[in-house]
Amino acid sequence: MAYNPKPSTGRRVIIIGAGIHGLAAAKTYLEMVPDIQLTVIDDDDSVGGVWSRSRVHSNLMADSATPTFDFSDLQMSEEFDIPEWSSIPGPIVHEYLERCVFNTQVTSVEKEGRGWKVYTKRSGEAVIAKGQTLTCDVLMVATGHFTVPKLPNIDISAFEGKTFHTKDVNERSEELLSRTLKPLLFNSRNWWDRFVVSGGNAWGKKLFEWFWQSTTNNRIGDRYEKSENGRLLKPKILNLFWSQAGISLVHNRDASVFDALDQGEKIHVARASIVSMKEKILHLSNQSQVNADAVIFATGWEPITGQIFSPELQAELGLPVLWDSLPEAEEKYWKELDASEDRKILDLYPLFDNLPYKYTQQEVEYTPFRLFRSLVPPSLTADRNIVFLGKLGNVQQTSLAEINALWSVAYLEGLLPLERLVSDQDAMNREVARVSAFMKRRYPGRRNIPLALLEVRDWMDMLLRDLGVRTDRNRLAWERSANRVFGWWGLKGWMAEWFKPYEPVVYKGIIGEFLERLGQQDDDKKTR
């Protein structure tokens, strides 16, 4: 028997953000609770978030192969006839995501009883008072981290050329393609756990180091050693495990980029910082100069925390705030809890206390994100009326977006009993502090953004276990296949689970599986 939730008729739901996480949330909510009143708000002129029409140039290629960008029930290779594991043109990513268009900016959000009041304005218009007001019972914030461009602290007033961020490359592409323009790009960029990953066992540590060094050498090869440009561009990392970003700054399969890099006629690399920009000359920290008609800043994004909320509400929602803005008792509580959980992480993973590289420890002015499962403010679990989506940096966005959406809707609709996951508020706070401590030690030097790169599969499994949904997705796919009869007593299913790559399609049907489990629980209650 499938479960059929019956929330209050006409429940109003607002989703802020029409990127991958926002669209996954909208689709999931409507599939589970069709009679909600849903509004999706985005300040761009099209959906897609970082893949919106305004950001995607026609020649842009996604640095991922087709299956990795798929939603579980919408394969890009089938939808757009792209060969599996081939590169994805940027416009295809946008078209794949496009299902609706809107152009509205959220200026502020306030609590109103058990719901929320959302103040908006049309993008490009000046804010007059607080603009148009919307109200909702449920708020899903899916604004992500890549909204406000981060620009270096350099005085560009004396520079006579053009300057802009990579976010604006598409809108200003005609300027870039001018034959008279010389542009410059400026970049800144279990038992196994216990025995191998922790670093607490000598043989496990050797196996761990050998595996990751071999994997890294195989991945990089000698492709950066063929020219001085390549050597300057080669990432300075020990191995993939300690990398806090992609292993390559250049698309792996685009040999023409490396050819141009090695030839050194059209591409010149300087590994230095910009000291000053005057006329059309850049003065670098290595005492050299570079002439440029345009400078494109590929310098990342400002960390977005909760600018649409008041500082007081940010703290209540578990968003980063200045440490010295907290009441003394609350600051003391969290610092003691953070220190306690940090000690536990170091006990479990001794290698984090003896890093094989040095990093610059920056002064921590802001509190970390304090969201349970990187989704829910611990202080508002009684209300169940707000979640934050897309706050966990990872390398499997679409799959995590779908699982996040299912977990969030189940939570918001009261279908996920939190007391089964954590005993009380203090236990939830300890769990939040523990995860924060792990991420701080696992990815030191990162800014205040939760991150799970190699750990993202474990994270998704944790969310599925919360929901009571099976995590062995490849084995489950084999069990459902027509070839199960030739499975050698389950050996093929075991082989698929352990040796076949996980693709987004294996998560197809998780909503139905969750609702079916709820229906079975209802049936069990009726028969008691």
From TrEMBL:
**UniProt keyword Acetylation present:** no
What GO MF annotations does this protein's record show? flavin adenine dinucleotide binding; NADP binding; oxidoreductase activity
Record flagged with keyword Oxidoreductase: yes
* SUPFAM superfamilies, sorted: FAD/NAD(P)-binding domain (SSF51905)
The entry's keywords: FAD, Flavoprotein, Oxidoreductase
Write down the Pfam families for this protein, in alphabetical order: Pyr_redox_2
* Location of the FAD/NAD(P)-binding domain: 12-305
Can you say what this protein is called?
FAD/NAD(P)-binding domain-containing protein
Under InterPro entries, the record lists: FAD/NAD-bd_sf, FAD/NAD-binding_dom, Flavin_mOase, FMO-like
Superkingdom, according to UniProt? Eukaryota
**Originating species:** Hyaloscypha bicolor E
